[in-house]
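Researcher: Please translate sequence to structure tokens.
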Amino acid sequence: MYTVMLDLKGRSVLVVGGGTIATRRIKGFLQEGAAITVVAPTVSAEINEWEAKDQLRVKRKKVGEEDLLNVFLIVVATNDQAVNKFVKQHIKNDQLVNMASSFSDGNIQIPAQFSRGRLSLAISTDGASPLLTKRIKEDLSSSYDESYTQYTQFLYECRVLIHRLNVSKSRKHELLTEIIDDQYRLSLVKQREFLQQIKKIQFVSLEFLAVLNF
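Model: Translation complete:
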């Protein structure tokens, strides 16, 4: 399996099933701004709440062939083998399908994942051990704590500013390498000082260009 990241904003996502696994999947899809439809005879209290807030659409019935049409991503979150078989028989070749109860029956897997701002980490054992996947996720969640939320935003802002500088490629690389030192993650003061340094370099570069053009 080849790992990719999907932009689901505004994309049609069909979730077949309304239980615990479906609810967990939907939480992530809502965060990504997907256009979600849930098809299931009954759904969880959380799904009911999301429906009441117009965050998704619910069809309280068994999945039919018409539900699968023009859907970008289909997640089958049920242990009903008849439902799994039905979906597998009626999907199109260009549709993305995840079967929660049988990963080999779909054409994509949804790994365990978490985010810290602009940092996203995904973990999969390719179906070998969900328990090991869970343990690794917990270990990584502890190692990459909430400090990375602000820190990755700082890195992004620096990268944008540094690429605009009128300095050599090697100098840009030096500056980008400097800020991945842990001291910058742990100190807002160091971050502010670095940003001031970059802005000073930018100002000096602009002055120099102004003199050359005079």
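Researcher: Any highlights?
Model: The chain has two domains: 12-110, 147-213.
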